[in-house]
Amino acid sequence: MTDDQTSQSTQLGTVESTRSTPGPTSNKRKRADYRQSQQQKRQELKTVVFEENDDSQDKIKLPKKKYYRQRAHSNPFSDHLLEYPIGPSHMDWHQLYPALIRPEAETSTDGSKQVDIVDIGCGFGGLLVSLSTEFPDKLILGMEIRVQVSHYVEDRIIALRQQHAPEGKYNNIAVLRANAMKFLPNFFKKGQLSKMFFCFPDPHFKIRKHKARIVTSTLASEYAYLLRPGGIIYTITDVLDLHQWMVRHLEAHALFRRLPKEWEDEDPCVKIMRKDTEEGKKVERNKGDKWVACFVRLDHPE
């Protein structure tokens, strides 16, 4: 083989190698195409009620988390483009629970149906999915501020609803992109909620960022307003400083009392919270600590 032929062969090999190895641009296009496809399905299926006798072979696949990656934290004080009702009575819950709540113009299948349990900063929805089967008669809502993460949870719920249509599972959970630090009273009435979960929230390590933590004196009063007497706040984190911060602010509030460890050990929600959230699994793999504190909403200040 001549030098020219060798050079040409080497160049062709380089070209073929380049073509066969996907680069950053190729991965970016693949991610964009996947997201666009999922968005189209989401718009078509988000309010679909899957029939119990649906034995279709064309099952919706669970979404692939790698295509929804986003920064781990989001600034709650930023001017996010969010939609929210002017008050709880203006919220159309049919869009989130189509199988259980009829369109606004009609009556609910159950006049008493309303969101009962909220997971603040629900992440990729692990807790939601587990709570769905633990409380099949309760409406459970995950609230997540990050766009792509909320899309992932929505796509996950749609897939689970279709895959489990014969059993009628997962119709009682939904996700909403929202800023829980600003707009909770726009969605829920006084005393509406029985449980609120704060699982592995952003620790905001810098002192100047502590005001952005999801538990503060002001927000504790808001949570007391939304929880009915006897309702529970659940907190878990792998950051000791944040755990102590949340405990300090909730213990200082006149309408909350911390529940003992014996209660935590027996409560099924604590068990689920420890093992079924994506962050909880990550901490488990890294052999980290999980700090739990639960608080009951009092009827009257002590």
How would you describe what is shown here?
- By secondary structure, the chain is an alpha/beta fold.
- It contains ten helices and seven strands.
- A seven-stranded mixed beta sheet has the order 3-2-1-4-5-7-6, with helices on both faces.
- The longest helix has 22 residues.
- It is globular and about 55 Å long.
Describe the biggest sheet? 7 strands, mixed
Tell the overall outline.
globular
Unreliable stretches (pLDDT < 50, length at least 5) are 8-19, 105-109
User: What class, by secondary structure content?
Assistant: alpha/beta
Spatial strand order of the main sheet = 3-2-1-4-5-7-6
CA radius of gyration: 23 Å
N-to-C CA distance: 93 Å
Beta-strand residue fraction: 5-15%
Count of DSSP strands: 7
What is the helix/strand order?
HHEHEHEHEHEHEHHHE
The helix content is 25-40%
Q: Please state the average pLDDT score.
A: 86
The number of distinct helices, counting runs of at least 4 residues, comes to 10
From the structure above, extract its key features.
7 strands; globular; 10 helices; alpha/beta; seven-stranded mixed sheet; 302 residues; single chain
Topology (SSEs and partners):
Layout: H1 3-20, H2 24-45, E1 115-120, H3 126-134, E2 139-144, H4 147-163, E3 173-177, H5 180-187, E4 193-199, H6 217-226, E5 227-237, H7 240-251, E6 256-258, H8 261-266, H9 268-275, H10 278-285, E7 291-297
Parallel strand pairs: 1-2, 1-4, 2-3, 4-5
Antiparallel strand pairs: 5-7, 6-7
Helix pairs in contact: 2-4
Short description:
This protein has 302 residues and is α/β, with parallel strands linked by helices.
